[in-house]
Amino acid sequence: MTGRAPKTCSWRNPENMAQGCPRRAVEHRGRDYRCEQHPVVENLDANQRARRRRIKPLTTAEKDHIRERDWHVCRECGAPAHQVDHITEIADGGDNRPSNLQLLCDRHHALKTAQSRRDGDPRDAATLRRELSARALRKRRLREQGFYVQ
């Protein structure tokens, strides 16, 4: 006995997500605990499973390596830069290898993001600017004033 309480089934009613199954779980798959009446059904083909994979986020050391490799300047204009950007987006099949990463200034990173949004998303650059966090805007102002330098 492990001393832990038995897990209950993690199944939820699709019509009413607040309604779950009270039975004791017998099967564990990842974060999913299921009873015998609600088995986990995996009907994904190989391509869907590959798309669903998790790619670990870049560490600070990896980002610093890219910044040093690119001499802390934007690949587009040569201005001081700090935004580590994926050349081929992860959603489009890219990965976190250094050959797929580049350093961009705020302006070119926003332009690239706005362009990719225009290509695949109906939202425009104005919407993108509104979605920036307060922390990102504060850091941008400090960088423009010369206080926050990497």
UniProtKB/TrEMBL annotation:
GO molecular function, one term: nucleic acid binding
Domain HNH nuclease span(s) in chain numbering: 61-110
Short name of any one Pfam family annotated for the protein: HNH
Entry keyword set: Endonuclease, Hydrolase, Nuclease
Protein name: HNH endonuclease
Organism: Tsukamurella pulmonis
